[in-house]
Design brief:
- The chain is of the alpha/beta class.
- It has a single domain, classed as Aldolase class I (TIM Barrel), CATH 3.20.20.70.
- It is built from 5 helices and 8 strands; from the N terminus they run ββββαββαβαβαα.
Amino acid sequence: MQIIKNGRLEQDDWQHVADGDALPATRYTVSYNRWLNDRNDLMNGSAEIGVRLSGDVELANMGSDLGRLALIVIEFPAMADGRGFSLARLLRARYRYAGEIRARGDFIRDQAFFLKRVGVNAFERLPGRDLDDLLPALEEFSVTYQSSSDQIEPLYRRHLRT
């Protein structure tokens, strides 16, 4: 399967494992609930692990484990569910998560630029949805006014230095 990662189309080798399914030997993601229930076993394994989050999770429950996760997938069950934007922003700003944050699910082209602004650096769309139309959307605006994960200083501060 292909994803967009850091502004480029790439092949993805991560496996999204359903609750109750056997774990593969290498790179996989589990649901937040499975991570809560099997945390010790998962974190002590040798495989790279990621966690899939829905918009209603409490990031504080993940504590110091965040830095040990190679991937955090934020699930977008519906295009109108904006809680994933807040999760991405919190992961980058408050929790200083430096790994891959991936948006997965039902988001639209118009949301891609803003997801990137809050810290999402990878995109996985629903099966049958085209990724090619997302690439130009990531660079659609050349100037941003507000500070965010991709630009720490607001425009007025950047303007004062020029």
